[in-house]
Structure formats: structure tokens, C-alpha cells
Amino acid sequence: MTRFHLSPALLLLPLAFAACGRQQSADAPSGGTDPNGISVRTARDPEVAVVTGGDTAVATPAAPSAGSGSVQVPAAPAAPAATPAAPAAPAQGRPQDANEILRRVEQTAAGIRTLEADFTQSLRVPLLNSDQTSTGKLYQRKPDRFLMRFTQPAGDVMVADGRYFWIYYPSSDRTQVIRTSIAEGGEQADFQKQFLSNATDRFVATLNGQEAVGGRPAWALTLVPKRESPYKVVRIWVDREDFLVRRFEMTEENNSVRRVELRNLKVNEPVSDALFTFTPPAGTHVFEQ
To answer: What is the pTM of this model?
Structure first.
């Protein structure tokens, strides 16, 4: 049976972000990938395989800073003191290793209640020799409100209203709406939980270096699941200043790779209830998942 699959991006997202959710069975006869790179109940598209990009130079950890309150003894040489000062805590944005970065990302994510961001999701499909890009606006309010409103393809939308998760892609089929209960797929409304909850226990993390994301310096991390997972590899780009995840990249079991980048993030600002409502348009048919 086809299983609902939300891909983001996501995220997180703190996703934040992108995409996440249940893996669709690779041999499900009705499975496919829609124009936004998210698997739904269609039979139009084959499996995809996408080539990922490379990494940048490896970053080095920050050296501990000396204490500012040391007392100088006249005529004493500049050799190390008999009682050295305790090492300073890692400077903001300069953690010592990948696991420390993940812990600080998780601490940051735990404080996020609402999120608003512009997103870009890209997908390259070698089997079709094509590249697909979708853009739009993302809103999240924990624990169970979520919205992805697409500007490309225009009119496509995904909404979690607290009770149901709705997917409507008029760019693919104007007559079909997919609905799943929050009890069945509600974890997909929280991108942060997908990748950032207990991340050091769930993934083997490697710090690959630094890259700029949207003009901001970020740590690039590779996460390999320790246990069964719908993803072979997850890569995240963590902002060095605020420890928000600005980019996700997921390699799935069927070797498809999706990248979701978040820009213009707004955290913990008021988000209207009206955003998280959806009424199936006239003439559409609702399919339960």
C-alpha cells in the first residue's frame, strides 16, 4: 500500500524545513514523485536519483582563550603558570566538533515555537535528464500546525491544521486532494523533530567544513543514521551565529536527493490561525491516506 511521504526539506527544519516523513515503498505500484519533489499517490513519475554537491575546506576548532584576570608577577618568565587557567568555553559559532554542533542546534530548536521562512527546494532527476525547482513560503507553529504555500508551482499547497494534513497540487491534478490524519502523519508537521531530536544518539555526525548559505557562514555536517531510517544520509548546514539550520539535503532509500534551503527566517513571531486552514476547492475529490 502506498504510504504518505512528505519530503523537506525540510525541516529541519529547524526547520525547519523540508522535508521529512515516512518513506514510500519503492515497489508500491501507485507511488511517484510530484512536481514539488514530494511523493504522493500518483503513477506518473519513476524513482529518481540525484547527484549531491561537494564540501569545502575542513574547519578547525577554536583554541581556548586565556583568562583576562591573570596577575603578573614581577620578573617572572612568560612560562606557563603553575596553576593554569581553566579552558574557556567554545566561542559562539565555534564549537569543537560535530556532536557539539548538534547539541547546540537541538538546544536552539527546543526554543522555537513558531517559524516563518522563504524556501527553495531543488531536485535533479537524471533518469529524466531534468532539473526541478520549487519555491514558496513556509510557516510552522508547534506542535501540529504547518503550511507550505508554493509560488512555483503557483497554487500548490500543503497544510497541517491540527487535525488533518492536506496536500493539494493543482499544477499536477486540479481534481485531487490528499488528506491524512495528524494521528497518522502528524510528526511531519515538526521538521525539527525529524532530524534534530536526540540527533547525537540517532546519527553518526561528521563535520565537513564550512560553506556560505545565503551569504551567512555555516557549518556543513553529514549525518548517517545509526538505526533503520528512510534516509541513507542527511546533510545539514548550521548557521555559525544563531545555530539555525539553513539548508537540508536528504538522500533517500531510493537514492533520490532533495535539497531545501531556508531564507529570511523569522522565529517566535505571531503566526495567524487563519494560515493553517484548508477547504477543498469545488470540484475536487478528497482521497484519504
So the answer is: 0.67
